[in-house]
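New here. Your pick:
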Amino acid sequence: MLDEAMVKLAKEIHGDLVPESTCHGNVEGADPPLFIYSMPYLRGSSCIEVLAFQVEMDPDEEAKHGVFVKHLARYFARCWSSSRSVDRQTQEEQEEGIRKRLARLAEESPPSILPKSLLSKLIGSLPSLFSQDYPQVLTHGDFSVTNILLDENKFGITGIVDWSLAAVMPFGMDLDILSLTTGFMTQDGWHDYACKLLLQDTFWEEFWAVSGIKGEERRGRTQDLAETAGQIGAILRLAFRRNADGSPSEEVLMSESRMNQLRAWFGEQAARLT
C-alpha cells in the first residue's frame, strides 16, 4: 500500500515526475491484501525498453545515454538537497535491520561470490551512514529499470512510478541504479557498456554541479559513502527473498544469476578484499 506521506514528499521534491495516485480500495479476499490504484498516463517508456543492449555504442547513442545519467544525477541531487530529520529510534531500527541481513549473508553466501571481508566493510560503514551528520533522504526503495520512464528519442527522464517502498534512508541506498543502467544482463551474465566509466564520470560531474557540493575532500567522502550505501541497497534487493509488500526479507536468496550480478558489480573491490 502506498504511504500517502511519502508520495506527497516525492511530489514536493520531484514534481511532475511523480504521478498523482488514487486508491480504489483492495481486492476482496486477497491474502496478502492487494490494493487497487489508478494514476494518469505518463509519457515515455521504461528504461529496460529504451537503454542499449550492446557493449559498444555509436556517438549518438552514447550521447543520449549521457543525457539520461545527467537526469539521474539531478534526481539524486534533489534528494540530497531535501534531506529529512529522522528520530534516533527509527534510525537505530533501520541500521540494525540492515546489519542483521548483511551478517546473515556473510554466514550463508559462498566467499567466492561476496567475500566476508567485503560484507564486514559494509557492516562497518553503517554507523557513518546512519550518523546525524550524513543526509537521510527520500529513497524510492525499488528504483529499477522498470520504474523509471524515459523519452524514447532524447532519453530524458519523464516519470518515476511505484513508490510503495519509499522511505527516508541514508543517501545513496538507491545508487545501484547507476550500475544497473551502465550495462545490461543476458543469459551469458552481466556486460558493462564500453563507455561505462565515461557515463559514471558524467553522473558525478552533474551531481556536484547541481548539489553544490564543493571541495575534493568533501566530494570524496560523499561519493565513498554514497557508493557504499548503493552497494548495500543492491545486496538487499538482489540477495534476499522479498516479503509480500516487496521489501527484502531476512531470508537469503541463493540465486546464481543474482549473485553473479553482484559479483560483477563488486568484482574489483571484492577481489581487493579477498
Remarks:
- The chain has one domain: 43-273.
- The CA atoms of residues 113 and 259 lie 6 Å apart.
- The chain has nine helices and eleven strands.
